[in-house]
Structures are given as C-alpha cells and as structure tokens.
Design a protein that fits this description.
about 70 residues; mainly alpha; elongated
Length: about 70
C-alpha cells in the first residue's frame, strides 16, 4: 500500500488585493461614523401627541371616530 503525504500551505486564507482591503476599511469607517454624525435627532418630541391634546383641532376620540 502506498503512503500519501499531504502538504499544507502556510496561509489558509486567500491573498486579498490591497485595493479591496482599503475599500473594506473605508466602508467600515463610514458605517461606524454615520450614527455619530446624525446628530441628536428629535429626542424631545417623539411625534406623538399627548392623550389630552387637540391635534389639528380634534381629540383622539374624534380622530378615531373619523377613521372608522
């Protein structure tokens, strides 16, 4: 019976061209920086009128009746 020997390469990962690596690094940097550049947003007003308010002259009950 013949003995078969296998050789292994020193690196199991394929070589990545420098341009692809630079593009991937840039994409990760932009993705990480985007939320920081967005600003505080609308923290004080979530866009929901309080229950006792009159939004555009109607109460929640009147808006509900109009919807249905």
């Amino acid at each position: 019976m013949k003995r078969v020997t296998m050789t292994h390469s020193t690196s199991s990962l394929p070589a990545v061209p420098p341009l692809k690596s630079a593009f991937a690094a840039l994409a990760l940097l932009v993705a990480a920086a985007a939320p920081a550049m967005a600003g505080p947003g609308n923290l004080d007003n979530p866009g929901i009128a309080p229950p006792q308010s009159h939004f555009r002259g109607r109460t929640y009950s009147e808006w509900s009746a109009e919807w249905f």
